Amino acid sequence: MNCFTILRFKHCALNKSLIEHCFIPYISTCQARFxxxxxxxxYRQRISPRERTQKKALRIRLVQNFKxxxxxxxxxxxxxxxxxxxxxxCLGRIVTSPFLSYLILSQDYQIALWLLAFAGLSDLAxxxxxxxxxxxxSKLGSLLDPVADKxxxxxxxxxxxxxxxxxxxxxxxxVTRDVVLVTAASYIRYHSLPPPKTLARxxxxxxATVQLAPTLxxxxxxxxxxxxxxxxxxxxxxxxxxxPILQCxxxxxxxxxxxxxxxxxxxxxxxxxxxxxTSTRTSS
Length: 284
Fold this sequence. Notes:
Layout: H1 3-11, H2 16-46, H3 49-78, H4 85-105, H5 109-132, H6 139-162, H7 168-192, H8 199-202, E1 210-212, H9 216-238, H10 244-266, E2 271-273
Antiparallel strand pairs: 1-2
Helix pairs in contact: 4-5, 4-6, 5-9, 6-7, 6-9, 7-10, 9-10
Family: Belongs to the CDP-alcohol phosphatidyltransferase class-I family.
Pfam families: CDP-OH_P_transf (PF01066)
Keywords: Lipid biosynthesis, Lipid metabolism, Membrane, Mitochondrion, Mitochondrion inner membrane, Phospholipid biosynthesis, Phospholipid metabolism, Transferase, Transmembrane, Transmembrane helix
C-alpha cells in the first residue's frame, strides 16, 4: 500500500478506523521481525570468542569420533570366517612340505610319493569345495591356496635338486619365480591395508583386504610341476631315473614356469582390492 493509495482513501472520505485496520497487520509483522533480529544480535553479543572456539572444537571432535566409529564398523563387517575346510586343507599342505623334504633327503621316496599324492588330492578338493559351497569360500583362501602350492613345489624342487634328481638350473628358475610372486603378493597386501598399517593388522588373516585370482597358465604350470615332481619321486622306486620322458617334462616345466610368470604381468584381473578400489593388474 503506497502513498497514492492513502490519498485515494482520503479523497474517498474513508474514516480513520478503516485506514488503521489496513496498516495494523503490516506494522505487526515489521515489529516481529525487528524483535527477532534484535534477539539474535543480543545472543551473539553474549557469546564470547572463547565459547565460540570451544563449540567449534567440540564439533570437530564429534565429527572425528563419528568417522572413527564408522571405520571400526567397516573393519568388523569386512572380517570373515577363516576356519573353513579349504583353508584347513591348505594349512595341511603347508605343514606337509617340510616333512616331505625330510623324507626326500632321507631317500624314503615311497612314503614321500604317497604323501605327495595326498597333498595333490587335497589341492583338488579344496578348490572343488570352495566352488560348490559358497559358505566355504573365503578371501583368505584365494591367497592361502597359491602360497601353499608354491611352498610345496619350492620345497620339493629344492629337496630333489639336493639329491640330484632334478636339474639345478630348473630348480633356480622355479624358486626365483615363486619368490618374486610371493614378494609381489606381500606388497599388494601392504598396499591394500587401510591405515593404521601395523604388523598386527597386516598378519591378521580375518581382515581381508584383497582377493587374488591365479591365471589359467599358472594353474597349468602348477599341475605340470607336480607331475614332474611325482615322476621324479617314482623314478628311483621303479628304476627309470633320467628317462627321456622326464627330461622332456623338465623342458616343458621350464617353459610353463616362464609363461606363467609372464601371464601375471599381462593379465589385468589377477587381484582386486576389497575396500572400494578398482581392480588392477599384478601377480599372486
